Amino acid sequence: MLNKSEDEVYEEVKDWNSDKLISSINRLEKKLPQTPEAKIELLPLYTALIEKADEFSESELLGLIRKEETLFGIESAFVKMYITDGYNNSELLDLINNQSISTETKEYIVANGEFSVDELSEIFRRTDGRTATIAIKRISARDSERAMQLVDEFVKNDDDSISDEKYISICLGIAEYYEEHTTPEDIQAMKNIYIPMMRKIFEQGGSEQVKDQAIYALGRICDYDLFKWIIEHKSINKYTKISVAERNYRPMLKWIEEARSEDDILAVMEAMEMRPTLEIADALEASVKQGKLPDSEELNSVIDYIRKNGIPAVDKY
Fold it and tell me: Which pTM was predicted?
């Protein structure tokens, strides 16, 4: 069966009854390696099973989800059926607390369940890792002030009760939200609330992993003052700064275009010492020729250094 195309497999299994589908999926999940490719091979069977959601009651689906021997793939299919049928959210919240439920399924529940901001807030408080990241991202999209208050509950604590995973979920959740939301209101909230908060996480982080994730998240927020803070910070390593410079390639072109003195782009000039980028030299030369930037010895020295040592930009962000 698995040597056929997905369409061929689906046509073969779509009329099977649900018991036969469940039995086949369970057998194949145990037999196949736990890889993305193997999961894709099972998609036609999952699809055929999910289409039979109306055949299952709420209690039947919950019983199947909670069975210890239920593997992730079919477990997530049952959860999708439960969510699609609009069953009780409180049961979904209980599943998130269930130790026998796979992490991937919990992430799917948080990402797709019809939860209120209050419910998502409780999920964020109780979970770590990617599950908490998804929760804080969904809260930010619906009520950024509430998300700020929730994050502040954790960040303002000065004790050791916050796990590294929680700190990381805060960093990633905020960064992912602001990569997708760039209205003036979002940017203002970012500058007034989240950037100071993320800096505090960096300063207070108990592990290098937390510090790295905080800077990674901050580097995704393309703001010149923040970029300058990262590039000039003595405690941030060179390789992290190079990564931030690469991510901010397009913003650096904009900052150069808008600059009217070297003071406006000092951080860009410093970044070029660590990650000389040929296209940045082109932009600097163009601004000098147009009279926007001064034809100074220091600026020409930066351009010459880039010409001798530079490489093309990484324009993928």
Answer: 0.66
Q: Are residues 106 and 125 in the same domain?
A: no
What's the whole-number average pLDDT of the chain?
85
Residue with tokens 């969510």: 83
- Per-residue pLDDT reduced to its tens digit, 275-311: 999 999 999 999 999 999 999 999 999 999 999 999 9
Say what angle helices 249-258 and 266-274 make with each other, to 10 degrees. 140
Contact 71, 30 (CB under 8 A): yes
Task: Give the separation between CA 226 and CA 196, rounded to whole angstroms.
Answer: 10
Three-state SS at 149 = helix
| Separation of alpha carbons 121 and 138, rounded Å | 10
Whether 78 and 5 share a structural domain: yes
Cβ atoms < 10 Å from Cβ of 314: 14
Integer Cα distance of 114 and 191 in angstroms: 30
CB 111 within 8 A of CB 83: no
**Mean predicted confidence (pLDDT) in 120-140:** 89
Are both 279 and 197 inside the same structural domain?
no
Beta-bridge partners for 311: 277
Domain that residue 132 falls in? 115-221
**278 and 181: one domain?**
no
Predicted pLDDT of residue 215: 83
Q: Please check whether residue 242 lies inside any domain of the structure.
A: no
What tens digit of pLDDT does each residue of 173-211 get?
Answer: 777 676 666 677 776 767 777 677 777 777 776 678 778
CA distance 105 to 80: 9
